[in-house]
Amino acid sequence: MSTHTPSSTAGTRETTEGTVYTVTGGDWDEVVESAAKADDERIVVNMGPQHPSTHGVLRLILEIEGETVTEARCGIGYLHTGIEKNLEYRTWTQGTTFVTRMDYLTPFFNETAYCLAVEKLLGIEDQVPDRASVIRVLLMELNRLSSHLVCVATGGMELGSTTIMIYGFRDRELVLDVFELITGLRMNHAYIRPGGLAQDLPPGAVDQIRELVKKMRKNLTEYDKLATGNPIFKGRMQDIGYLDLAGCMALGATGPILRSAGLPHDLRKAQPYCGYETYDFDVPTADTCDSYGRFLIRLEEMRQSLRIIEQCLDRLAPGPVMVGDKKIAWPAQLALGPDGLGNSLDHIKTIMGTSMEALIHHFKLVTEGFRVPPGQAYAAVESPKGELGVHVVSDGGTRPFRVHFRDPSFTNLQTMAAMCEGGQVADVIVAVASIDPVMGGVDR
Amino acid sequence: MSDAKATGDAGKGGGKGSDEGVNPEKDLSATNLPGQRGDQGEEIRVQRGMFGADNGGDTSGYGGLVRSIRLPGPSSRPYGGWFDEVADELEGALEEQGLLPENAIDRTVVDRGELTFHIEREHLVRVARTLRDDPALRFELCTGVSGVHYPGDKGRELHAVYHLRSITHNRLIRLEVSAPDADPHIPSLVSVYPTNDWHEREAYDFFGIVFDGHPALTRIMMPDDWQGFPQRKDYPLGGIPVEYKGAQIPAPDQRRSYS
């Protein structure tokens, strides 16, 4: 025990390994003493951050009496990687490679939200080609499938139903195969760029997506057969993780949590972006306010996503996938070579051999990037987890001055205490699974 | 701020080759420089040179270049669309509470189709409560707070930016509050929007903005014993200098850059 007077900041002490900070709170000693004196049956359980059913490095601090949770708190920050700070030292285009890693289960939503915000700052929202917007919607809806599948799969696993887990990851794999075909990567794509897309769909993509839709239609019924009417499943999920509409609004919960309270709020309908107002789809809701309702909503949203994907495929018309403004559009023409994906030889031949100006332009745009007029903008998309908002500030330079992601996982995770306190320990797992937090998004 | 721009000396002293650079307050009028917004807008910084290096590393000849960085300034009526309606309702509701709107709302900015109210920090809670409760406003959902650090914006370096969404009326507005580095206090909105609990902890963690009235303002992302506020612009990036053939590559914020 240190002898110096307690202060609100950390005290330091030199050791052979370097400086060691000791956290001392103003009343920490009193808290410890009174906890030691109390003779009730109160137990504090520390769940996580390394625990298979806490969805990544989420730490739950549960105070329990018998089997009842009396207080629940989250400890987060174990996956904080400083992405927002990092973005301030990259160009606007390089930013997509960072934001895609935030909520790693919804990369296309992160990229689209970021690009919509940058495009708003640039004032080029109207110039983004139709084909680029359709492909963005297509990829986002495919991504909604894969994200919801992970949620359903891991949620099932945490209930002890490993079959649902196998099903979910089996179907997600089909979606990831399509992602790999289109972008070259299963995750962390950086495919959507400010102004459009990195490149067009490869040959065969449309056919494979049609195949996927057909297969997924068939597979989605298996979840209904296995889980929806299953009495054990219902017994574990119904009335668990209860949060009504007032609670959702106060705590800022959006997405399936809000819709399970009966409010059909979906940014795709309320504040459409990427042309969502022209697609035909429904916003499913439930009035149960519980985990079971959220499960049903996710299943139905996957079916609606399939509907949107089919509409996207039908309206894919040939055309450019990047804005015409050569001061913004990435000049490279990518092609597959023997050593992987890179600039196409034709493009290199043109800029190296025939046009000095094109070479300079290419070099400037790739190394320096484009400038974005000073100001700030907010763009929001409906990610599978709720409102994903991006606040970007530019000071007129080639790098973002500030980028802030309002990740729905971060905000929704705050509802954990309201959902779990007063319930059973085993139900904490169900409630947290129904929130569907992804720590990459929570901690950024 | 903008009256500091002298008008008579336009064009005097191009800056190139001058040893000390150019004093923008004295030698140049802002209007004849590229990329300027003239006197409009709110100056947040004066940038010198072209490559962001202020330790003498810029040998390009552009060292004397001076640019003032300006964010969009206050707008005047009409704001357009439903913006006027919201502004009228807010001003009316504040007046009803005996608060002069011009005392609470520092300025109103309309830019890129978005409405921003800059609020004096001492009135933030009341303005937010009004925005939430007034039936004609009904901004029920707060999407959290985003901190921004403008080290060049003297006296109001730290900004807290709130986005409020009205599901009833399907609208989105932005509130912006500022505080000086020397007194980084902003009232907490947790009593109005409980969702801001973690968001304010995050803004405190990264920017050192102290949200007065927050129930437990502790660090949320960084370790409890972390010192300093990492997302402030003056927070040193550190990093390990990379040595290549005897030369050291500095941390990213010390390097030359195009910004």
Characteristic terms for this protein:
heterodimer, A: 444 residues, alpha+beta, three-stranded antiparallel β-sheet, 18 helices, 12 strands, 47% helix, globular, B: 259 residues, two-stranded antiparallel sheet, 4 helices, 11 strands
Describe the structure.
The complex is a heterodimer of chains A (444) and B (259). In chain A, helix 5 runs antiparallel to helix 6. In chain A, 47% of the residues lie in helices and 15% in strands. In chain A, the strands form five sheets. Chain A has a three-stranded antiparallel beta sheet. Chain B is built from four helices and eleven strands, in the order ββααββαββββαβββ. Chain B is globular, with a radius of gyration of 22 Å. Chain B starts with 41 loop residues before the first strand and ends in a 10-residue tail after the last strand. Chains A and B meet through helix 9, strand 10, strand 11, strand 12 and helix 15 of A and strand 2, strand 5, strand 6 and helix 4 of B.
Oligomer: heterodimer
Radius of gyration of chain A: 24 Å
Largest interface: A-B, 53 and 56 residues
The number of helical segments of chain B is 4
Determine the fraction of residues in helical runs of chain B and give it as a percent range. Answer: 10-25%
Strand count, sense and closure of the main sheet of chain B?
A: 5 strands, mixed
Instruction: Give unreliable regions of chain B as ranges.
Output: 1-35
What value does the average pLDDT of chain A take?
87
Main sheet properties of chain A: 3 strands, antiparallel
| SSE class of chain A | alpha+beta
Radius of gyration of chain B: 22 Å
Query: How many helical elements of chain A?
Result: 18
Shape of chain A: globular
Head-to-tail CA distance between termini of chain B: 23 Å
Q: Outline the low-pLDDT stretches of chain A.
A: 1-8
What string gives the helices and strands of chain A in order?
EEHEEEHHHHHEEHHHHHHEEHHEEEHHHH
Strand order of the largest sheet of chain B: 3-4-7-6-5
Assign the structural class of chain B, choosing from mainly alpha, mainly beta, alpha/beta, alpha+beta, or little secondary structure.
alpha+beta
